[in-house]
Design goal:
The protein has one domain. The strands form 5 sheets. It has a 5-stranded mixed β-sheet, with no helix packed on it. It has a two-stranded antiparallel sheet with strand order 1-2. It is built from 6 helices and 13 strands.
């Protein structure tokens, strides 16, 4: 336990650890991050292949089924490839290990801070065990390019990898970060193209709604969806009543934290790819 708001004790949310007690990031989390970025890129390049518009609850999954689950490894009883089965996902072409163990010296405990559009802050009565800024975490990735051909990806993975990161970075900045004030810490932290990783990083980095619909229509759809969402504050269920559409940003909260007197975005990661000697 630790002290949070007004000397109120609160539980620390611990980082993922293995049976040996050593901290790591699951490869499945990184694969999910890459899936989102890759799907955004496929949407940009193939807007004519998008499925019909559906309700927000199913929109993202329907897009994924249509544009990523394009292999023919599993078929239904009529012999038609089943695009609702993840077995047919082109992500089978990417294998990512869990990270190498992360040293305990690389961790700190950080408060959960919500930054509003107007630059004001709201500190939540919650703390997390977090990796310190600028810590390097290593994963091992293998790629089989054959699985990407059904969606028209013929290039080597390395330029594709860098392009999807660049495009994700562009969307995240244009549709989201630029809507907030009081982000003086951006210039230092966001020099390079980035992806967003982790449960504490918020809604935007895990969804493709804005990429599909553009800002105006995406804003309306996400705003309406957010009104139906609930959150728990001090153990109580609270409905979201904010007029995100009127604020011209949705979600209207940016997840940040503080470390050694400086503010940091939650989950922002510089990503690099190095070819191993075989």
């Amino acid at each position: 336990m630790t002290e949070c708001l007004e000397n109120t004790p609160c539980e620390i949310q611990r980082f993922m650890r293995g049976a040996d007690g050593r901290a790591y990031i699951p490869g499945s989390s990184v694969k999910g991050m890459l899936r989102t970025a890759l799907l955004q890129q496929i949407i940009r390049q193939n807007p004519d292949k998008l499925p019909f518009e559906s309700d927000m609850k199913h929109e993202g999954k329907n897009i994924e089924n249509q544009m990523i689950n394009t292999l023919t490894l599993k078929r239904d009883r009529n012999g038609i490839p089943n695009n609702k089965d993840a077995v047919n996902s082109i992500m089978k072409g990417i294998s990512i290990s869990d990270s190498e163990p992360i040293s305990n010296d690389s961790f700190t405990v950080c408060k959960k801070i919500d930054l509003k559009k107007d630059g004001s802050f709201n500190t939540i009565n919650l703390v997390r065990e977090c990796i310190k800024p600028y810590t390097e975490v290593v994963f091992h990735l293998k790629v089989d390019k054959r699985y990407f051909k059904p969606v028209g990806i013929q290039s080597d993975f390395e330029p594709l990898f860098r392009e999807i990161i660049r495009a994700f970075d562009e969307d995240y900045r244009n549709f989201y970060l630029t809507k907030f004030r009081n982000l003086d810490f951006n210039e230092k932290q966001l020099k390079n193209d980035f992806l967003v990783l982790g449960g504490g990083s918020g809604y935007f980095g895990k969804n493709v709604i804005y990429t599909r619909f553009g800002f105006e229509k995406g804003l309306k759809k996400v705003s309406d969806y957010m009104k139906t969402k609930t959150q728990f504050i001090n153990g109580k269920k609270v409905f979201t009543n904010s007029d995100d559409y009127g604020l011209r940003i949705s979600p209207h909260i940016l997840k940040i934290t503080q470390y050694q007197g400086e503010m940091y975005h939650m989950g922002i990661c510089d990503v690099d790819l190095e070819r191993e000697t075989i």
